[in-house]
Design brief:
This protein has a six-stranded mixed sheet. It is built from eleven helices and 13 strands. It has two domains: about 240 residues, Rossmann fold (3-Layer(aba) Sandwich), CATH 3.40.50; about 70 residues, YebC, transcriptional regulation domain (Alpha-Beta Plaits), CATH 3.30.70.980. The protein is of the alpha/beta class.
């Protein structure tokens, strides 16, 4: 099933967040209204016989915060690799900040926090930040980097003594040390506790309000729901949905029935009218249905001892599973 809530080229996606007061110097202003941060035009990428991306068209406006979702193998990492100039497309064209990705990287306009990036041992946090700043044409002040990443008290700590969440914050600090206009985050809150995760996203909202563009990939769907202005869902190398979280949830069509039933038989429940999927855990049953009225009537006409029946709209996880056929 393919649901395209709003094609990437429509005007809704061309409206960037207002350019507010930025921490960058006057020579590097925030995003201009209507500017484009990322453009994919008919982009394809193959690895031998494997098609990782298949004719993708995508526009991300400057100043947007966009979540990139998809099951493993959907093409997310390939898309990010193309945006960072780490890969070249086998078809189509990729532009970042109105130039080639490699040129944007060389100009210090892009920052990236990649999931599999490591940290050198025997180095202090402030030393690593200083190294990245020295490579950047317009670095952010060290004190500002430390403050934004929540590392002021850890500036002198060596990397081998960092916790998992602290190491993630250092990776984030390295991504922003060059004061980028466009920031890529790949699973940024892995290993962070709930409080640190909440603080991180509060900082990201501030970062975006300064006119910067943020693109992040995550498996925490509630983060995408709460943080992103827009969500792009990839599956099998194609965009299957593109819109706000509310639009994608509405577009998924399915509604959710939850109830308790001892000894529930999955096959019987799957045969009820409108049922798309059935999940049984003990006496708890969750049904996704495209016709909740018909499903409920048929269920209540049986002599089954159904208890605590609830009907709800789809959440983002329901929509994600529907869009990707439950493959995750």
């Amino acid at each position: 099933m393919t649901i395209t809530v709003a094609p990437a080229d429509q005007s809704r996606n061309g409206v960037a967040a207002p350019a507010l007061a930025s921490a960058r110097s006057a020579a590097t202003p925030g995003a201009a209204v209507g500017a484009t941060a990322v453009r994919f035009a008919g982009v394809g990428r193959r690895f031998g016989e494997t098609v990782a991306l298949d004719g993708v068209d995508l526009r991300i406006g400057a100043g947007e915060t966009v979540a990139l979702l998809g099951p493993n193998g959907a093409g997310k990492s390939t898309a990010i690799g193309l945006m960072l100039g780490l890969l070249d497309p086998t078809a189509g064209r990729v532009a970042v900040l109105d130039q080639s990705p490699k040129a944007a990287v060389r100009g210090g306009r892009i920052g990236a926090m990649l999931q599999e990036s490591g940290l050198p041992i025997f180095a202090r946090v402030s030393e690593l930040i200083g190294l990245i700043r020295s490579l950047s044409p317009h670095p952010m002040p060290t004190a500002e980097v430390l403050r934004r990443a929540g590392l002021t008290e850890l500036a002198g700590r060596r990397t081998e003594f960092l916790s998992g969440g602290e190491a993630q914050r250092v990776r984030f600090a390295l991504a922003i040390a060059g004061d980028p206009e466009l920031l890529f985050l790949d699973e940024p809150t892995v290993a962070m506790d709930v409080e640190t995760r909440r603080s991180f996203w509060a900082d990201m909202r501030t970062f975006a309000a300064e006119g910067r563009t943020i693109l992040f990939a995550t498996h925490y769907l509630e983060e995408a729901d709460q943080v992103a202005d827009r969500i792009v869902v990839l599956d099998h190398g194609r965009i299957v949905a593109d819109g706000t979280a509310a639009e994608i949830k509405r577009g998924a069509m399915a509604r959710t029935l939850r109830f308790r039933l001892a000894g529930a038989e999955r096959a019987f429940l799957e045969a009820l009218p409108g049922v798309r999927s059935v999940d049984v855990s003990g006496d708890r049953v969750v049904i996704q249905t495209t016709d909740p009225d018909a499903t409920t009537r048929a269920l209540l006409r049986t002599d089954l001892a159904v208890r605590d029946l609830e009907l709800g709209g789809p959440d983002l996880e329901d929509a994600f599973l529907a869009l990707t056929h439950g493959e995750h």
